[in-house]
Automatic annotation (TrEMBL):
This is RNA polymerase sigma factor. The lineage of its organism: Bacteria, Pseudomonadati, Bacteroidota, Flavobacteriia, Flavobacteriales.
Length: 186
């Protein structure tokens, strides 16, 4: 018998080994929990989404440090709380004129086409462009830079002045949303 807790532990183990499908499954499983938590805290959809993206970015980068004595959702929520606190501090510093620098985050997700990539590739370009236009602007931007401008993750990160993991998580989320739109039309 495969209980959800055992399945999550297996998925985390695969993610620790660098499996992109495992990262994607964890994102799918816990996105709404982290986003909902941050939406209540920030009362701002954009901030909640940005913090959630940064949470998964940091979690995927630091997945080897995850202690299985704690729930994975609890770990993600703790990361998101810290990011939110950091965001508030950074905004206060910026108001005071100080400037904070983000440190570079190393790559965790590989470039192998996922199921979402394959579904997106199969779509008629005109229909795909209609779907892309329905995404939030920051998701449209990463999709356009990656697939239409054929930029690398590193180049996109530099273009957007964001850590590479944020770009990867945004792209992963954008592809999931696009795939859901495409599937709902079929």
């Amino acid at each position: 018998m495969n209980t959800p807790g055992i399945k999550i532990k297996e998925t985390i183990l695969k993610a620790k080994q660098g499996n992109q499908i495992a990262f994607s499954a964890l994102l799918d499983t816990f996105w709404n929990d982290v986003y909902g938590f941050q939406l209540k805290r920030t009362e701002n959809e954009n901030d909640a989404e940005d913090i959630t993206i940064q949470t998964f970015s940091k979690a995927f980068d630091k997945i080897d440090t995850y202690d299985e004595a704690y729930g994975f959702k609890t770990w993600l929520i703790a990361i998101s709380k810290n990011i939110h606190v950091d965001l508030i501090r950074k905004r206060k510093r910026n108001v005071l004129g100080a400037d904070g620098n983000d440190e570079a985050i190393k790559s965790v997700l590989d470039d192998a086409p996922s199921a979402e990539d394959q579904l997106i590739i199969k779509q008629n370009l005109a229909a795909l462009l209609q779907h892309i236009r329905k995404l939030k602007p920051h998701y449209q931007e990463v999709i356009n830079l990656r697939y239409f401008n054929e930029m690398s993750y590193a180049a996109i990160a530099q273009e957007l002045n964001e850590p590479m993991n944020n770009v990867k998580v945004k792209l992963l989320r954008a592809k999931k949303l696009l795939a859901e739109m495409i599937k709902s039309k079929d």
